[in-house]
Structures are given as structure tokens and as C-alpha cells.
Write a structure and sequence with these properties.
Layout (H helix, E strand, L loop, with lengths): L3 E4 L25 E5 L8 E6 L4 E7 L2 E6 L4 E6 L4 E5 L4 E5 L6 E6 L8 E2 L2 H8 L3
Antiparallel strand pairs: 1-7, 2-9, 3-8, 3-10, 4-7, 4-9, 5-6, 5-8
Bound molecules: thymidine-5'-diphosphate (TYD).
Thymidine-5'-diphosphate binds next to strand 2 and strand 3.
Amino acid sequence: MQIIKYSFEIHGDERGQLVALEEFKDVPFDIKRVYYMYDTVEGVTRGYHAHRALEQILICVHGSCKIRLNDGSETQIVVLDKPNEGLYISNAVWREMFDFSSDAVLMVLASELYDESDYIRNYEQFLKYVKGE
Ligand code: TYD
């Protein structure tokens, strides 16, 4: 599985840092939704799902966390700990987010509005989906 990480340009100066993200320029899709997780309880793992169509970019804008990705044949773990780094996750990838630092803020840019019918929340069903069964 190819891990796609974006390193966003930092517009830093003597006042501090600024990162700007534009759809189709810095991010390869139309940004229809943004959400973020914070105050994640220590030891918690979130996610446990894949999407039929949704594409996302995950940015840990503060603190750190880890993302476990599984495409049905292999698993990889990615550390997110830089506010200018984005992890692209395509559709049909099972994801779990874990090891959140107490100060972690995980922001997600999403290509579609929230749609529960786009979720695959059962791992066995996910494996069947990627095999085309
Ligand atoms: P959930 O899907 O459990 O989060 P995750 O699997 O990423 O850990 O979402 C938690 C709650 O937030 C759930 O009630 C659905 C709601 N939610 C929205 O209303 N809009 C959204 O865009 C997202 C991602 C979740």
C-alpha cells in the first residue's frame, strides 16, 4: 500500500507560522467538510471503518497521533506529529486512529458531506468489499 503524505508549505515569518490549504491545489479534491477531534481520552482508538467513496486528508494540527491503515492485504502505521503534514486516505481503506497525545487535535478534510451509508463499519464486510464480493 502506498502511503501518500503531503508536506504543506509553511508561510512562516517573525510572527509565527501559517499553513493555507486550497482544494485542488494543496489538496487533491473538493473540500466539502472539515471536522476535528480533540480531548481524545488516553488509550482510546477511534475509526474502525472504511468508506465506499470518501477521500480524506488527516492533519494532526497539534500534538501527535498514529493512524493504522489497512487496504485488505497489508497494514501500515503512520505517525502524524507535524501541523504542516497531511496523510491522504483514499476510499476503501480501513483506518484506526490511536496513541493520541493529550494535546492532540486531529483535523480531517473530507471530499464529501457526512453520509452514514458511505461507511463500512464491519471489518469482514470491508474485506469482502475490497475483494469485490
Ligand atoms: P464517529 O464516526 O464515531 O467517529 P470516528 O469513527 O471517526 O471515530 O463519529 C462520532 C459522532 O460524530 C457520530 O455521532 C457521528 C458524528 N459525526 C458527524 O455528525 N459528522 C461528521 O462529519 C463525522 C465524522 C461524525
